[in-house]
């Protein structure tokens, strides 16, 4: 049985747990759309694995934080995270448009 994704907001930190795949993104999206603008940190230490849909969700959260005028700090590297980030040429803060993302 697959683990159920979980998102917990603790102050300005969003802690994610479980598999961050397409099914998890569909389940979490309504909850994450209502996040406050003050989100400053993503904690991924308890995420088992991330797929391209999960990475897209994380990149969207990071883009929202940048729109609010601050970068989103990300900690933890679940399986698949580094490989997909490199494949999509995302910068360490999950910005597709950053100069370092193209290199």
Task: Note down, in words, how this protein is organized.
The chain is an alpha/beta fold and 103 residues long. It is 34% helix and 25% strand. It has three helices and four strands, in the order ββαβαβα. The chain has helices spanning 22-33, 52-67, 81-87, and strands spanning 6-10, 13-20, 41-50, 73-75. A four-stranded mixed β-sheet has the order 1-2-3-4. Helix 1 (22-33) packs parallel to helix 2 (52-67). The radius of gyration is 13 Å and the shape is globular. The mean pLDDT is 87. Pfam families: STAS_2.
What's a quick, concise take on this entry?
InterPro entries: MlaB-like_STAS, MlaB_ABC_Transporter, STAS_dom, STAS_dom_sf. The chain is of the alpha/beta class and 103 residues long.
Keyword list:
single chain; 103 residues; alpha/beta; four-stranded mixed beta sheet; 34% helix; globular
* Poorly predicted segments: none
Question: What is the element string, with H for helices and E for strands?
Answer: EEHEHEH
Q: What can be said about the biggest beta sheet?
A: 4 strands, mixed
Distance between the termini: 40 Å
Query: Main sheet: which strands, in order across?
Result: 1-2-3-4
C-alpha geometry: globular
Classify the beta-strand content into a percent band.
25-35%
Number of strands: 4
Query: How many helical elements?
Result: 3
Radius of gyration: 13 Å
Name the structural class: alpha/beta
The averaged pLDDT comes out at 87
Helix content: 25-40%
């Amino acid at each position: 049985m697959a683990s159920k994704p979980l998102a917990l907001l603790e102050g300005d930190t969003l802690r994610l747990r479980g598999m961050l795949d397409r099914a998890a993104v569909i389940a979490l999206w309504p909850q994450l759309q209502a996040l406050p603008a003050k989100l400053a940190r993503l904690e991924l230490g308890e995420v088992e694995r991330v797929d391209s849909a999960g990475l897209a969700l994380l990149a969207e959260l990071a883009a929202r934080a940048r729109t609010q005028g601050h970068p989103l700090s990300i900690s933890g590297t679940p399986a698949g995270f580094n490989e997909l980030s490199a494949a999509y040429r995302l910068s360490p803060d999950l910005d597709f448009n950053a100069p370092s993302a193209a290199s």
